[in-house]
Every structure is written in C-alpha cells, then in structure tokens.
Design a protein that fits this description.
Blueprint: E1 7-8, H1 12-16, E2 19-22, E3 29-41, E4 44-49, E5 54-57, H2 59-65, E6 76-84, E7 88-91, E8 94-107, E9 109-112, E10 114-115, H3 116-121, E11 135-142, E12 145-157, E13 160-162, E14 165-174, E15 177-185, E16 195-207, E17 219-225, E18 231-235
Parallel strand pairs: 1-11, 5-8, 9-16, 10-14, 15-17
Antiparallel strand pairs: 2-3, 3-4, 3-6, 4-5, 6-8, 7-8, 11-12, 12-13, 12-16, 14-15, 17-18
C-alpha cells in the first residue's frame, strides 16, 4: 500500500499528467493530456487546466465528443487535446491555446464538500461504514476543487455490485486553516458475511469553493483518510476560488 499523500496545488508534470508533445505526422501539431475545469457554455467553452493553461476548443470537436449535447453540468474532466503551435500564446506567464481539437473526455465524479454535522447526520461518519482505500496516489487543489485519485475495494453481494462513494468532510475550519477528511463508504458492514469485493480506480473532484475560511493569509490544508498517512501543506487562497 502506498501511504504517501502528495497534497499540492500545482504539480502538473507529476500529478496532472499535463503533457505536450509533437506528433510525427504533423510537425506543427501538439497533444496535451490533463485535468481541466469547464467554464462557459455551449458552444463557447473555456477550459482551464489545473496548472493554469487556458484552452478554447473548437465547437465542432465539442459537438463530436458530446454527440451534440455539450458538457451539461459537468465541470471536472480529463481531456486529450490536439492543437497547433501557432494557436498558442503566452501572456503574463499564462498559456492560452485557441482552436483546440478535443479527442477524448473522461468525466470525474463531482461531489460537494460537506461539514462534520452533515456527515454525522447522514451516518457516514460511523466507524463501521468507513473503509480504507488501497492506494492514494495523487491529491491536489486547484480551480475551487480538491481532486483525489485512488484505488479502493467495492462490495459484491449475491452478484450485485453495491455502489461505493466518497465524501470530503471539512472537520475543522479555523483562521487560515482547514482540515479535510475523505470518507470512503462502501455501504456494507465490515463484519458482513457472504460479501465479495473487487478493486477499482476512482477519480473524484470535491467542490471546495463554498468554504468560508477566515483570515487573509495562505491556508494550511490538512488531509486525512483511512488507510493513508495524514498530510499537510500550505496553499494560496486562490486555489479555493472556482475558475472563471
């Protein structure tokens, strides 16, 4: 089990898989893969990468990958993007790419952050309902979201999958500090019999933009979850703001 948690705002080279490489068949074309926040509306979407890169996709490619329906209520995605060098500009250290072609989209599971009172009322703070994750590899904050990639087991009872979910609970908020506890709930009891399990990879993005953290300095974020080591770091306040 990998018990290291990397909780940082912008580490695109390692965490966000945001890469750009030149294609052999079209020398001026590049490919970028990474996590983005969707802003705007169809057909004029603006995609903001977790490292700050801004991408304006072509309406035709949006229509193609969404079958003409647009992204709807989805805000957090992993994209494969193709673009030409001449459509990339840099101003004030921000990279902007226009006329980008979207080739693939993977939607992340989006959840709102809840407080400890809400978690207790919902019964998801009970020890017997919280299961450890198998591997927590990447966890970061950006564009008003805390994103977590992890592997965990889910239950199978009588050949029926019992859907699992994760919740992010803000257990403590104080001046320039917040503590998050991620709860992985499989909705089966730990001592249940006749329960099989299987492991799956998950990608969650939790909305942290509504949190009211007092103070005006950088924020110390502490993250904990059953099955992994607690980790803390300081982040700029603007990572709690939803991308515009």
């Amino acid at each position: 089990m990998n018990k290291k948690i990397y909780l940082m705002a912008f580490l695109c080279a390692v965490f966000l898989c945001l890469v750009s490489c030149e294609l052999d068949d079209v020398k001026s074309q590049q490919i970028m893969n990474g996590y983005f926040t969707i802003t705007g509306s169809s057909p004029n979407y603006k995609l903001i990468a977790d490292n700050g890169t801004i991408v304006y996709p072509t309406s035709s490619s949006v229509s193609d990958i969404t079958k003409g329906f647009g992204f709807g209520n989805h805000k957090r995605v992993y994209f494969n993007i193709y673009y030409n060098k001449e459509n990339m500009t840099t101003e004030n250290e921000t990279i902007t790419i226009r006329n980008a072609e979207l080739q693939k989209v993977t939607y992340l599971i989006e959840m709102k952050t809840i407080c400890e009172e809400e978690a207790t009322k919902a019964g998801i703070m009970q020890e017997d309902s919280i299961f450890p994750i198998n591997t927590l590899g990447n966890c970061w904050l950006s564009n008003g979201y805390l994103t977590s990639l992890f592997a965990a087991s889910y239950s199978i009872i009588n050949d029926i999958i019992v859907e699992s979910d994760a919740n992010l609970c803000a257990t403590n908020i104080s001046d320039n500090a917040v503590t998050f506890k991620m709860l992985y709930n499989r909705h089966t009891k730990k001592n249940d019999t006749n329960v099989k399990s299987n492991k799956e990879n998950y990608a969650y993005s939790f909305d942290i933009s509504k949190l009211n953290i007092p103070g005006n300095d950088s924020v110390t974020v502490t993250f904990e979850t059953l099955g992994a080591k607690t980790s803390s770091c300081k982040v700029a306040r603007n990572v709690f703001k939803y991308a515009q």
